[in-house]
Amino acid sequence: VHATVAGVAMGLILRTTRDEGEEQSPGARTGHLLHPLSAGLCVPLFALFAAGVSVSGDALGAVFRSPEPLGVVIGLVAGKILGVFGGTYLAARFTRARLNPDLAWADVLGLSVLAGIGFTVALLIGELAFPHSVSGEHVKAAVLVASLTAALIAVLLLRRRNALYRRLYEEENRDEDADGIPDIYQRTEGGSP
User: How far apart are CA 193 and CA 175, in angstroms?
Assistant: First the structure.
């Protein structure tokens, strides 16, 4: 059975409506459980193999010894950060555009690091710049190294931001008197519930 057919069959047999007493339907629950595996492992591996990237130890070592691959790493990691963060800052500073009050500049920094996860377009440009050469293989390895580096930096930055937002969410939804109304909406002017 082809994987696509199996996926469609699985989708057709899963109920998408909730029964009484259920927080989530089986379809939503299954999607929530499989999403990290699908988005975090299967899709990147598919993209890696579909793009025809074969990375050898020599190519990985050359990433930090040759100027072309090193330029790719610096461009994808530092260049994307400077471009996205700098462009957002300049737009907020010199135009009428403003950052959403719910966002902080640390959030923009984390998102700009995520922009460094370039794969298909970066590989295409690498193939066009270095057709049929050893440098082309080194550039492919550099794209992989840069994407992994950007992903790790983004995880570190955004995990810290997520902890802050999780604390805010928990405070906004705290209901110590269990009356169904979050305490934040029941505070008096003195600040106590």
Answer: 10
- Answer yes or no: is 18 within a domain: yes
Mean pLDDT, range 143-170, rounded to an integer: 90
Return the closest-CA partner of residue 122 out of 140, 145, 149.
140
Report the first-to-last Cα separation within the chain, whole angstroms: 59
Round to whole Å and give the CA distance between 179 and 12: 40
- Domain limits at 20? 1-50
Question: Who has greater pLDDT, 159 or 46?
Answer: 159
Q: 120, 147 in Cβ contact below 8 A? A: no
* Tens of pLDDT, residues 57-71: 777 888 888 888 899
Asked if pLDDT for residue 189 goes beyond 70, the answer is: no
Handedness of CA 167, 168, 169, 174 (dihedral sign): positive
How many structural domains does the chain have?
Answer: 2
